[in-house]
């Protein structure tokens, strides 16, 4: 009979393996196209590369330690290692949500009509991608800087009454104000991402209506490309927001509810 830790270890191992494989493949293909066929590189490929890299690093720094701990390898991180792992994970997790938001906004700008009020952004979209990426890194490095000063390996503690804790690291100085700051960041970027996605859906619906008016005498397909694209956008955004929000609240709940239950 498998123990609970073993089951969690298998789950984390599968999840981490699939995540690393998928993101590595996307990153490799994107990098290959950038170096061998730079003329075919789209404006969104720059953001996609950044997003894939952030996801890959976040998966490695969270999935591998969790897998090792679940299989019984405990106290494998020193204080320095704990600070590095926690900081790299939190920064890249933040960059991931920021890059996803930027990707949605740029996609909305690129498909917008030429007569809309922000059509001028199409010509300047390339110019603000790199400054936006640098801003995201700087923002998340500053927000999560306290993780460096407060994180410690669990082997140096027997119990934690305040703060944030995972199986292999604890941050006893991290209080609810830090969580609120992270939550506000996520809410802001999720809002702009959903706003851009809704705008894309509206444009697709308008385009479909124009096509229907132009081809009234012809039989239209029951499921047009615009309808499929609309359904895809709505489905992806809904799933992303749901799972991202669920993951955030689950992490916070587990970390703060298990503060006095550190396995030594």
Descriptors for this entry?
single chain, 264 residues, mainly alpha, three-stranded antiparallel beta sheet, 3 strands, 72% helix
Word description of this protein:
- This protein has helices at 4-36, 43-70, 79-111, 121-124, 129-143, 145-150, 176-214, 225-257; strands at residues 152-153, 164-165, 169-171.
- It is built from eight helices and three strands, in the order ααααααβββαα.
- Helix 1 runs antiparallel to helix 2.
- The chain is 72% helix and 3% strand.
- It starts with a helix and ends in a 7-residue tail after the last helix.
- The chain is elongated and about 70 Å long.
- It is mainly α and 264 residues long.
- Strand 2 (164-165) and strand 3 form a beta hairpin.
Topology order in helix (H) and strand (E) letters: HHHHHHEEEHH
Low-confidence stretches: 259-264
Query: Which strand order spans the largest sheet, edge to edge or round the barrel?
Result: 1-3-2
User: What is the subunit organization of this protein?
Assistant: single chain
Largest sheet: 3 strands, antiparallel
Structural class: mainly alpha
């Amino acid at each position: 009979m498998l123990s609970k830790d073993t089951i969690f270890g298998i789950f984390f191992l599968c999840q981490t393996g699939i995540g690393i494989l998928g993101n590595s493949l996307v990153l490799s293909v994107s990098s290959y196209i950038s170096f061998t066929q730079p003329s075919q590189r789209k404006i969104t490929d720059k953001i996609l590369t950044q997003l894939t890299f952030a996801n890959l690093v976040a998966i490695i720094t969270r999935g591998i330690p969790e897998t090792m701990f679940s299989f019984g390898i405990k106290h494998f991180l020193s204080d320095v290692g704990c600070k590095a792992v926690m900081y790299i994970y939190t920064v890249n997790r933040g960059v991931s949500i920021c890059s996803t938001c930027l990707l949605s906004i740029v996609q909305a700008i690129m498909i917008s009509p030429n007569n809309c009020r922000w059509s001028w952004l199409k010509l300047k979209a390339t110019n603000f991608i790199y400054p936006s990426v640098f801003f995201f890194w700087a923002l998340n490095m500053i927000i999560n800087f306290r993780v460096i000063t407060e994180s410690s390996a669990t082997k140096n503690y027997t119990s934690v009454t305040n703060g944030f804790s995972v199986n292999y690291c604890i941050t006893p100085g991290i209080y609810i104000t830090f969580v609120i700051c992270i939550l506000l960041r996520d809410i802001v970027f999720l809002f702009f991402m959903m706003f851009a996605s809704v705008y894309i859906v509206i444009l697709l619906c308008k385009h479909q209506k124009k096509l229907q008016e132009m081809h009234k005498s012809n039989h239209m397909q029951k499921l047009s490309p615009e309808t499929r694209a609309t359904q895809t956008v709505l489905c992806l955004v809904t799933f992303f927001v749901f799972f991202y929000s669920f993951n955030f609240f689950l992490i916070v709940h587990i970390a703060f509810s298990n503060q006095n239950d550190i396995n030594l």
